[in-house]
């Protein structure tokens, strides 16, 4: 399907919105922005009400037994859609690349293959060329999560010797007023790592603090990310250290709110 | 008796908390190595192809290891070396001891060998009255401080110059306040020289062993392996079975990758080829398994045998840089340690796979394309299946699993606060008594309305209307 231009007519594709649990409870505005943004492009979005979690937190612990039920439910909720779009790189990475606690039936495989991270979906499927409604007059830094970079390849990892690309950055460059500042260590892990952030608290906090200092050194006012889980950790660190930085999901910037 | 479980998180916390100097310097120095590696890799247009070729050569060799090992042995013998086989550390050490004992050798010098480290060889020999002197500067520092190496390429990288000045002042009488690296280096050189000249045997490892020629190759930056091989009459080399390469022409691929990956230099200062004993000397080669063939049989983990011990995965690992290598409590630290150490002792090293954010940087830098990050996750599955996970964590996850399984239980009273409470037990506060989230972080502010509530309030009607034909 080739779609040109920024504003699109209603598309005949069945799209479901996948809102991970922590976005639901802690950052609903990121979910709202995602929903509104997709609608602006003429995408009709369903939100299956019985969704809970993709199983990632348990699976990352190696706990297959306890992630199986969540994975099964995910498939029940999202089966039958052409696209399942989630504003969360690490959850989508889990669905696409791990998600093997349940038997890999055709239905499971289809759901996994149809699941997309929001930036990828905008960039690769909708092929968005403009966000005419978006205006963001700040110096900001981009934080792509490791899952999004090295798992989903929404950006070229700095370690890998191939031409540079960065899909989140590409989208943000279309936003008027926004000045992106670069970092000393652009794709260094921030230390969130799911349960790692509590089981390995000292290292996690030190990594987060180093990341936050990198933002401060480079004079960012806002940190924009397609992954709120990393930002939840970084925001907690910055607040505790008394550092004034604002953290926001990329959908909010691209949609022009809600802030 | 089962060995005590290593707690890398607690050890790393101690490394970070000791002062404001060590951890930041450690992180900075290793990050600089990573940056140099990036620049060196970028300068080679075919870098990624080299990695692929290296990986394929290793996979091929490991798949036909028996054939290539026998070929190496036959050719090494033809060149006049004496070849021994060791199934494990005990056999390896016994071979070394026999060689030394038969010749009444009481002091040896050795260059860095992770295999000898694995075998606990130094301690084994010392208890039998042999004086062992490390000839690599970093290893010597660690030896004098009674510590194992903390990094496979830079053994004392967790120490500052001030630490080293203290150690040298006690060991060789230098000025404890003089931290000038040149001064310290020169003092150690003077002290070491006489030991080198007195040693009855020199021990080395090997970076590569070439099947078609029976030659092995040792790469160092200090030339210390060459002294060990050239000064004493007897040279003993310990070679892990995975070090084999089929042909000399394969070597070029690995030499180009090794030092660029390790330190960002074009090649190690010394790349020495040993083909048989030198005139009037003896060359003994101990081909050692020590768990490697068992690893080769593990479907999920055999790729770890491709490792060429460059240390790039350690330099890039954000967790390793903040932890210091000794935190892993094992011969191998950092990402490669996480996937190797459990093959020696699953219970003792069961926590290591959790000492990672799974960021994946190690996989991307590895010159032989080991899927390190995926192996770390697979080790977690092994640990969870075998119930090595701490019980508090097991219960938290099983509770979370039950909640996520049932939407009605999960959504419950449909308020943000209640949803948050269901997420927090495993996400943030699984151990409430210690509240590890809160020591360095504020809790997130929970929203007044969940996304779901917002949706039901504002959009659900549309969704239902739409679904009516
Ligand atoms: S695993 Fe790869 S990067 Fe790490 S030491 Fe081995 S070869 Fe080097």
From TrEMBL, chain A:
Residue ranges of domain Cysteine-rich in the record: 15-94, 142-233
Any one GO MF annotation of this record: oxidoreductase activity
InterPro entries: Cys_rich_dom (IPR004017)
Pfam family membership, one: CCG
GO cellular component, one term: cytosol
Protein name as it appears in the record: L-lactate dehydrogenase complex protein LldE
UniProtKB/TrEMBL annotation, chain B:
Pfam families in the record: Fer4_8 (PF13183), LUD_dom (PF02589), LutB_C (PF11870)
UniProt xrefs under InterPro entries: 4Fe4S_Fe-S-bd, 4Fe4S_Fe_S_CS, FTHF_cligase-like_sf, Helical_ferredxn, LUD_dom, LutB/LldF, LutB_C, NagB/RpiA_transferase-like
Domain 4Fe-4S ferredoxin-type span(s) in chain numbering: 298-319
Any one of the GO BP annotations: lactate metabolic process
Keywords: 4Fe-4S, Electron transport, Iron, Iron-sulfur, Metal-binding, Repeat, Transport
GO molecular function: 4 iron, 4 sulfur cluster binding; metal ion binding
Protein name: L-lactate dehydrogenase complex protein LldF
Organism: Chitinophaga dinghuensis
